[in-house]
Amino acid sequence: MTTTTPQTSGAEQAQAVPQVTLTIDDVEVSVPKGTLVIRAAEQIGIAIPRFCDHPLLQPVGACRQCLVEVATPDREGTVRPMPKPQASCTLEATPGMVVRTQRTSAVADKAQHGNLELLLINHPLDCPTCDKGGECPLQNQTMSNGPGRSRFHDVKRTFPKPIAISTQILLDRDRCVLCQRCTRFSEEIAGDPFIDLQQRGVRQQIGVFDPAVLGFAGAAPAEVYRGVQPDGTPVDASIGVPARDAAGPAGDAALDTSGRPFASYFSGNTVQICPVGALTSAAYRFRARPFDLVSTPGIAEHDSNGAAIRVDHRRGVVLRRLAGDDPAVNEEWISDKDRFAYTWQGMPDRLTVPLVRDRGEDGTPGELRPASWAEALETAAEGLAAARGAGGVGVLPGGRLTLEDAYAYAKFARVTLGTNDVDHRARPHSAEEEAFLAHHVAGSRMSVTFADLENAPTTLLVAYEPEDEGGIAFLRLRKGVLAHRNRVFSVAPFASRGLERLDGTLLQAAPGTEAEVLDALAAGAPGALGEAADALGADAIILVGERLATVPGGLTAVLGLARRTGARLAWIPRRAGERGGVEVGTLPALLPGGRLVTDAQARVDVAASWDVERLPAQAGRSADEMIAAAADGTLGGLVVGGLDPADLADPALARTALEKVGFLVSLEVRESAVTRLADVVLPVAPPVERPGTFLNWEGRPRPFPQALTSTAMADHRVLDALADTMGAGLGLGTLAQVHAEIDGLGAWDGERAPAPTVPAAQPPAVGEGQAVLATWHLLLDDGRCQDGERFLAGTAQRPVARLSAATAAGLGLSTGEGLTVRTDAGQVTLPLAVTPMPDGVVWLPTSSVGSAVRATLRVDAGAVVSVSAAAHVNEGEAL
Amino acid sequence: MATTLSPVLSQHWDADRSWTMATYEANGGYAGLRKALAMAPADVVTAVKDSGLRGRGGAGFPTGLKWSFLPAPDGGPRYLVVNADESEPGTCKDIPLMMATPQVLVEGVAITSFAIGCHHAFIYIRGEVLHVYRRVMRAVEEAYEKGYLGKNILGSGYDLDVTVHAGAGAYICGEETALLDSLEGRRGQPRLKPPFPAVAGLYARPTVVNNVESIASVPSIITGGVDWFRSMGTERSTGFGLFSLSGHVERPGQYEAPLGITLRELLEMAGGVRKGHELKFWTPGGSSTPLFTAEHLDVPLDYESVGAAGSMLGTRALQIFDETTCVVRAITRWAEFYAHESCGKCTPCREGTYWMKQVLARIEHGQGTMEDLDTLLDLCSNILGRAFCALGDGATSTVTSGIALFRDEFEAHITGGGCPLDPAASALFDYTPRNRRADLQTLSGVRPGTVGA
């Protein structure tokens, strides 16, 4: 257990490739065979100008900016010049090649100057009002070695500015140099080509399918985006984009919330790689100049991939985020959620000062009022001390913490509160899952990496949608599928859009039958099961999602399969803090480093490090058990970190628990359902206002610095101060202290937890008008971390319910009609999308607008629910 | 000794219903296929290689050599694609050939496919020529009916299917890799090479792409023999070809003659330049080849001689212009064609043709400057050899050569405030010149503020 990156598996080391030696501008350079000339030049510090070239995209040779003079040896070895200058971005280096760039060749220099002039003749030259101005490759190259004045005196080709490609992405076609980076990204990386080239010649343009652009007879011109309203109100989707797709009908499932065909979770990357200001984001358009921004590297806080990002702020306000460049993790891509969902931390409901609830003489709770830190800490310390005596205090840190914060919670629970009642899992979970995490995940960092996802010939996904539950892992898997023809299998009820783009094979499983399907994966099994079994070997990878926790026997079966086949197994949770929490012991039976609470030696180990006499020896209660205990009054108090009760298995019970619990301390960034019920609210810093480290699903530490100047304190500092007030300091006031302690603890070489052995449960009986519920989170949904970003929300997939054709027919329903899913607790009505999936199964998005499954239905995947035709679909509700 | 015509492909163009199978068979059609099917495929390739037949589509690459570039069979499919996307201004040989005797093309396709081990061939026909598309379709149907195509052709055990495909009207699809993309149903834009089509062409399989006339010449090589074929033409430009004379000539049309014939000889056969007029300039190989003048009347029309004289044999589209023709006007029309047809993939062709068109139109209408001429020449040098495919290069040929040969005339437009010549005088039909005001919007060809402009 250290805060540094452990040794990775071999896949990340480059394999030996034969070298090729060539001469560029009289400098000899050796590069691996297959290297493009433009990259070989980079190696010796020679920058050849380029627009269409991008190291992660296939060469296209369209912009012609990188022309160089080339000579190659013929069969006799005489070096002969090629008759024309060559595009160095498409030309592979060959032995003995002699390249002359603009630095030593007049021909190359003239070719590049001429090309730049051509690129500018139809360019609007509106740098002063362009978002890209100041960081624009076209502008920079024009300034550094472009023509001083234009010889073009004629009429420029113009386009109306801009058109909205989605609610989030805007396109100024007149600025475009048609380098095709965006379309190649969409096709080669994301696999969702929502934009493409249209027309030809000088009228060639990027765009979504638009009959007016294509000149179809009678087609009306596309409605165009009209900008942000003067009062700052974002444009409504209906202003910027057509109400319905002009291309014609698309299934409800294929539409985004603006009613157009669903675009992409990764479209923001096209804005970043655009070498001019043609693609801009609605969120950033006209907001800032790049040279006024202060940039800080960061790590995306939305999921467990730990994508590298760059946070750009101006005078304390984050104005945009960009993808960072980390070849080992996210390469240069991030999801739109990572890029655009940053407004949550600056919302008006942000907590800036501690709050304390006064109580009446009789103990009736009053209102929350601002308080000093001293008072708030005193009040919290007193309340927690009392609660500790009245049944004990449980800790629910939530799944979004940094490693340092999680460590502080783990230590705070054990040392200050004297309990193992700590559980970061703010989602449906199980004892089987904890056993699985203790047995397989804790203490085994970097056993599977992103590079492995790319290189493994076979990957089996179990209860995990890589695109919706993170995104970056999806891109890596897809890269491997395209580059190496890797195969992806998925145990799921239906083939999602993501699986289709992975060219994946579905191993169909109704909710609750996953264990059965995994057990049936054996050589000689019929159909896809047999294929998958044959493909699963020691070089294969099994990726299991957090959702399998709710399937009794599921994780047991997955461990069994991994043992049987030798495949490597990795657990990919959704939230950024889950993996770190497992590692530092925010689980009721786990201490830091995978040490078991029940292992005396492990307790002694940790107690020594923490300088306490002993640690509680009893495994604590899980989050569900704490909620139940708080609800029935047996738990005296709760310390709650950043979690939303709506994410818990039973949100209503959680609310009751928070109301009833004797004393509630909340550490939060923003006002929330928890803070509203808390006795003491201690404000904590969001990721941009503090340094820290996320541990991503690989177990790779992802440290990030503080981006904004702030007085807000990180959770570990607040907990340290609280512990101090309670009489026993944690010594975790600074990052350095936390790191020193974590590193001092070191790895655990003692006994590991045994594997869980939970038998698979029988699938429930489904009666007339009933179905088994399948559900998972979409990447863009109703989550609190996406608050305040309407442009992004407009690109979310439209929530739909899914049934098989037979089940839908049984209810007399077809695609687009309303389906009501009902339990005793409530009902959800969504438009139906008939989907190839098992009969008797209904799928709902877990937490999308109009579909809050846990809060409304109070059930989760695997439960039996009633399904019926909706009385009538209320379009507004359905959206 | 004066060269005479050598009608081979066009020999039976004047026969009654020359396009039917009956006529074709009556004139010895499909003898070549019968003979080829009895040969080893490699021998057919060797025969074509030995004949010295060079691609008739413009570039003149040796056809047999192209076939031999195919990698050794690996059991997977390999394709023959016939480029019948004849779209260049002035070029008009494949379309008459396919109209008059489509069966010679079908026979050539069968022989070539047999030679290269292809079992599915495609004929990609320019989209605008629906009548030709119909005629070739019918010819293929007839060939199927007669057993020249389909399963077990003529009892040889060899199978071949032929698909006739119509393009959607884009000059770029005559570029072989753009043609392949278009044939696959994609946007027709040239592909990156390597890999060359011989290695990864249609559907990423080994593919031979040949011009209509090249393929149509194959049956005669098989029946007539290598020596017969080599007896025509020059040492390195063997055989015969269709020379398409158009413009200010008394009897325009197709003149099939051995390569190496001169324009002087061809003009004699065609009755000379329009009566009462004299030759001013001509294109040896279509609008993508540098202009020639009367000075070049005796240049032998073979690949080497035309190249040595500073132009290209191209598609042997001889457009004849007499002294009534305004060279600026002619070149501007061609430039407009290239701007209209530029596929848009690469910067030099997309932007350069757009710019060139406007400058030329200004000069034509007397609004140019002397500086414009230098700009044009420099612009051409920034396009030539910088574009992604050869079509961008072609756009500059007539401009550069035109200014070199007729700089005075360009300058006269500039200094004289317009064209010194009467457009009606050069017309071959009743023509009232439009008062084309050279207003800027017309010049750019783009209406401002329109989506899709």
- Cα separation of the termini of chain A: 46 Å
Largest interface in this structure: A-B, 50 and 45 residues
- Using the coordinates shown, work out and report the CATH topology of the largest domain in chain B: Rossmann fold
Number of helices of chain B: 19
Tell me roughly what share of residues is in helical segments of chain B.
40-55%
Description:
With 879 residues, chain A is of the alpha/beta class. Chain A is built from 26 helices and 37 strands. In chain A, the strands form ten sheets. In chain A, strands 1, 2, 3, 4, 5 and 6 form a six-stranded mixed β-sheet that branches. A six-stranded mixed β-sheet of chain A has the order 16-15-27-26-25-17, with helices on both faces. In chain A, helix 8 (373-389) crosses helix 21 (715-725), helix 9 packs across helix 17 and helix 9 packs parallel to helix 21. Chain B is α/β, with parallel strands linked by helices and 453 residues long. Chain B folds into three domains: 21-230, NADH-ubiquinone oxidoreductase 51kDa subunit (Rossmann fold), CATH 3.40.50; 240-322, Ubiquitin-like (UB roll) (Roll), CATH 3.10.20.600; 327-444, NADH-ubiquinone oxidoreductase 51kDa subunit, iron-sulphur binding domain (de novo design (two linked rop proteins), Up-down Bundle). Helix content of chain B is 43%, strand content 11%. Chain B has helices spanning 21-26, 31-37, 41-51, 63-68, 94-100, 102-116, 130-145, 176-183, 197-200, 212-224, 226-230, 263-269, 303-308, 327-341, 347-364, 370-383, 390-416, 423-426, 440-444, and strands at 79-84, 120-125, 161-166, 207-211, 240-247, 253-258, 279-283, 292-293, 317-322. In chain B, strand 7 (279-283) and strand 8 form a beta hairpin. At the A-B interface, helix 2 of A face helix 14, helix 15, helix 16 and helix 19 of B.
